Structures are given as C-alpha cells and as structure tokens.
Give the backbone structure.
Amino acid sequence: MSGTTRLLLADDQALVRGALAALLALEPDLEVVAEVGRGDEVLAAVAEHRPDVCLLDIQMPGIDGIEACAAVRAAHPDVRVLVVTTFGRPGYLRRALEAGASGFVVKDTPATELAEAVRRVRAGLRVVDPVLATESLVDGASPLTERESDVLRAALDGEPVSAIAARLHLSGGTVRNHLSAAIGKTGTRTRAAAARVARERGWI
Amino acid sequence: MSGTTRLLLADDQALVRGALAALLALEPDLEVVAEVGRGDEVLAAVAEHRPDVCLLDIQMPGIDGIEACAAVRAAHPDVRVLVVTTFGRPGYLRRALEAGASGFVVKDTPATELAEAVRRVRAGLRVVDPVLATESLVDGASPLTERESDVLRAALDGEPVSAIAARLHLSGGTVRNHLSAAIGKTGTRTRAAAARVARERGWI
DNA sequence: ACCTCGCCATGACACCTGTCACGGGTGCAA
DNA sequence: TTGCACCCGTGACAGGTGTCATGGCGAGGT
C-alpha cells in the first residue's frame, strides 16, 4: 500500500504554500491533497482529505501550528505532523514535540531535503535538526512562570506598566514585580530586552 | 529573442528559494539561472549569469534586498528587479521603488500570480499590490530624520539609553532628545512602542 | 545676510522603572 | 502539618526615562 503519500500544507503565505506544493509535486511518491492558510482550518481539512502527513508552519492566523498539531494528533493519531517553520527557536522545537510533532525543520534547510524528511516522517521516524536539538537542550524549558509569561507578552508592544496592568487587571506594582523576575531570568536589564530574549528563545 | 526569461532568485531561506524555483520552473517561458541566499552575493551572480529579472527578498544577510536592488540597477540598468517580501510595509514599497524596483509583491499573494508578475516586469511594466500602494500613500514617507532613525534602530533591542549613546558615540541627553522626537512623530509614549511602530511602517 | 532645519549638547523637572523587603493568599506535595 | 512555589499586593528607594528650554554649530534656501 501507500503508493503515494498524501500531504496537507498549512502556511499563511500563499506564495510559499504554492511554491512548496510545486516543489513536492516533483516527487512521484508525494501528493499534495490539501492546502490551508489558517491554523484553525487545519483540523477540518485533515478530516476531509485524510492526509498521511501534515506540513504545518508555526505562525499562522487563527491558531498557531503548535496548537493545530496538538488538535490533529488528538483527533487523528495516525496522521503525522512535520513542523516547517521560519524561526529555529529552541522553545518552538520543544513545544512542537510536546504537541506530538514527528519532525521539525527550519525553512533554511536545503530544498532537496524536504521530501526526504517527509518520507522519514511517513515511515514513523523522527526528523529533527541536530544543531537545533542541542540548542534546545542547553537552553532547556522556559523558566518563566505562567504569569510572568503573560506579563512579558503584554509588554511586547512597549506599552507602559500602567497599560499592561489595566489590560491584565493587575496592580502596577505586581506587574513590575513580574517584569523584574522576568528580567532577572532572561539576564537582561529592561523589560523590552527581556521580552525580546524570551521571544527569541520561544518562551512566549 | 527572449524565448525564455532568465531569472535570479535571492532569498535567505533555502527551502523557500528552492520551492519558488520549482514553482517558476513549471512555466515554460521562465528559467531560473541563479539562486543566492545572501544580499551581497546578488551583484556578482547578476554579472555572471545575466538574468533578465531578479526576484529579491528584502530581509537577507549581508545587505538587504533594497540595497541589492539599487546596486543591481546601478551596474546593470537593463536588469529589472521584482521585490518579493514577507512584510507589506508601506515604507518598504516606497524604498524599493526609489531603489529602482519594477515590482513589489508580498508573499501572501496567490502563487498563480507570481509568474504573471514576472512577465509584466519583463515587459517593462510596473507591478505593485494595489492595496499596498494606497497604504503607502496615506502613510507617506518617513517623517524621521536620519539620526532619529539611527537612534530608534539602536533602541530596537531594548538596551538602556546609556548603551545606545555609547554605541552611537553620543551623549545620553542627545539620545533622549532624538527618542523624544521619534516618540512624538510616531504618536506613542515609550521608545519601545515608537521603535515597533516605526518598524511596522517600514521607517527603519 | 537672513532664516530654517537638522544635529549635538546641557540642565532641570516630573514621572516611570527596576529592585528589594515584606505580607497575605492559594494549591500541592512531602 | 509543614513546607514550597506561585500569585497578588504595598511601600520605599535609586536610577532611568520623557519632556522642555536653551544654546551652539553647519548646511542649505530666500
């Protein structure tokens, strides 16, 4: 069986999505059966088209690729997921694997390797960028508490503490305490730098 | 002549680059003759392979696509440039056109339109996303002075004023003056928000 | 020559931030 | 029960930040 492997593509950039489809269509054993541009369309498309492997981008409107991966794995355990993303942030890799992804490749890997990665995932193997795996180990999981993450996320757009506090229904002092803790854990000196570092590490 | 249009692809993400090559290779009148992953490799590749049209991403290591476009146009006025970028920021469009680009498409346009855009550029026409063009008009050019842009760029990673001043060989007070002006021009209240807005607008 | 504009700088002021110490509350595991 | 970690809050303090007034310099345009 499995003369051809059925694929679903999810990427918010239509041009990239179509280009990946063209690339994968060159392989005689691969077939793109569905394309979606939003994370919250993935589950329905899987149910309708029954792919063998899903290629999911992380940053998408609706829900992100990580959540979409978890949803697909929960509803269709036989469907495997390969996360294909722009940013090789260690936290992304860890969270993707926790969500049940079988593989994780960044978009600056050579195009010739994508089809092989798909085949490996199809065969039940794991595909993980080796350099990213080591980075993930040294950086480890996020040391931020849930509330610290919330506050740091709210601080991403540079609003003053008062606005953050209002949006989260907290006291200004509490926000500053959480920010201070996050600043310490990221090894930075301002909340802006802490937010940037946490985002790069995939902690938020 | 011009049985086929010769193309150069420049994108830092190898997977996207290869996928675009596969997509364009489906068109019988188009031929990808060169691929590069860095902005500072574009000029040499143009000189060597003599493409008719260059597809340049903006964000690349080395020099960005805008500068690469200007360099190509200066050295090879007969080579046309189509900027293909992720972010449809109005400032990018304006700067790309100033640099001599013949076209500007964002990566979430349908894949089927890319080949047509390339043909239009090849024919000497301009290709510009219409909604982006209107946004560019309403937002206008950057109101920031050169120094304000420098300071705001240096403020992007959240360093304190003292670090910015040291990096730019300025006094702390001067940095704060420039930041204050930028905050006023962006309609924000903190330098972090000003930097974010300026980046979204393509002003920096 | 004059004026305007950008650039750099200083000083002063009100305000915001980052840090610390402290307390009270919850939930969870030893 | 006793810790322990997380959450929320207050108060206080040093230092950073945003704003303004003011001044000097040089490059353009009238």
